[in-house]
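## retry 2 of 3
previous attempt timed out at serialization; input unchanged, resubmitting
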Amino acid sequence: MKHITVGITGASGALYAQRLLHYLDKSPEVGRINLVLTAFGVTVIREELDLDVTGTKTSDVETLLGRTSEKIHLLPAKDIGASIASGSYRTDGMVVVPCSMGTLGYIAAGIARDLVHRAADVTLKERRTLILVPRETPYNAIHLENMLKLHQAGAVIIPASPGFYHRPTTITELVDHFVFRILDHLHISHSDETVWQGRRKQ
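## retry succeeded, writing output
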């Protein structure tokens, strides 16, 4: 059973995180999800999803997911001594979604000011899968340099750039297709409804 860490930071795109948690929680391949919400991540969730979360209360999981979960465990962003802050705590990967450019910069510089930064740093040093989902446009030179630096360090950069070839008709379909790409890089099975099957016959 996989153990996955999810960090939610202060960039637009909270819906991506919400849908990723939905699929991770439902997956029989996942045994535990460690969730960290930064203060700015909480702000974005409140603004974009209209959900009253705090980032520290266990009830936040039910608020964010819309149901209770035995898999998802909320860890306070200030708890730099939490389990996922140590390389001896084995995980199968970490996703920061959405990933703010500030968070990206801290991780690229190896600076750990909160649990998301520290857990990401640990994930890199232990050569585990680290997926960063930036949602910013346009990118400036600093953003691009940080992404290149992290790519070279072993991170997977998956910008929140949804595809349309599966012909989505709702925002949820659009978001889910992107979330499935994240699951691909975590090696977690998902619906193949949006998998490209080749060009349609004319």
